[in-house]
Amino acid sequence: MTLYDLVAPGLDGSADPRYRIAEIRAADPLGADQPLAALPGMNRDADVPALTAALRGLLPDPAGVARWSVPEALAAMRDLGMLLGSLKRHGTEPLAAVPDALPVLAALGRRTGMVPRDTVHHYTTWNPPGARQRMFTGERMEAHLQQAVRMVFPALVAALDTCGELARLEPYDPGFATALDRTAHQVRAMVDSIDFTVAQVSPVFFARGLRPYFEEVEIAGRRYLGPAAAQVPLWLVDLTVWQCDRSDPAYDAFLDESAVYALPAWRAFRSAHRGGTSAVSKLSAALSWEGGSRTPPALARSARSLAELLRILKTFRARHFGIARKAYGEEVRLYEAGSGGAPVALLRTVLDLTRDNETLVRRAAERPRTPAA
């Protein structure tokens, strides 16, 4: 049994409708099941007229969108988004081809509290698996990539709750280490996901077969990125663990751009904690204050737990950087930047920052101390 199996069922009873995964997947307010089953064939043929007709034919009355539930609106955006990405992949700006989509996308964005196009969550977590799965290519590797992201959503939701608790605690509190251990357990889902991706999805398939469907589109004069791995918010875990006060200007700028694609509760989490004191800074200050004396057991345990969490984050970052470097190598890539809009070099920066914080905590925790008199 995986962490997903334990956590996902509980989300369906959440007060936040964006966490009701089964309800969103089941919804088909546009009657898109049949048209989207034909989408891989239209994409293989680069059939822009058919894609344009499909988008136009699925558009609902914008006035009626306000009466939909949030899960229904998310499902509608999911399905329209598949056609937005497909048209752009074949060189057509979707709203230039179907201007009537603009008021619909704007209404769906307002109803869901999100950007007026699809995100990685629409494409993966809220996308029904099995016979109704929406795919650009229909290839098995695409299905595996979608599944890899589905694996982490419930764990990240749980991790954000735990990180909120962590931000309220101090390293001397036994609950500090407990919260870190729980977060580490939750974040391991990201490592499992990246390992699954490495085993099942080739960099060449992603770079040449799938990445073109994630291009940005223009909506009301603004360009919005397509579904991107960067929209899976591991950075919200970084935030309270180390990033809020030990970051880098390039990473900060990237997060400012990425945050708009997050769920409303996640944007609120970032706003609440971005000016706080990180777990690394709290622990460093506590260990420094202890000086040469014996480290209290609770503080020593907090140090070990924080070092372990940072090691897991570092492991994920290193593997993600390795995949990206292959997918965006000169001999393979079609694009300079990742689908999240950042160069691969930024992944290396974040990896180095994570490694530096892990090293700082581990050395501080292992530094010999003079026994108390």
From TrEMBL:
It holds the Pfam family PrnB. It comes from the Bacteria. InterPro entries: PrnB, Trp/Indoleamine_2_3_dOase-like. Gene3D superfamilies: 1.20.58.1320, 1.20.58.480. This is DUF1864 family protein.
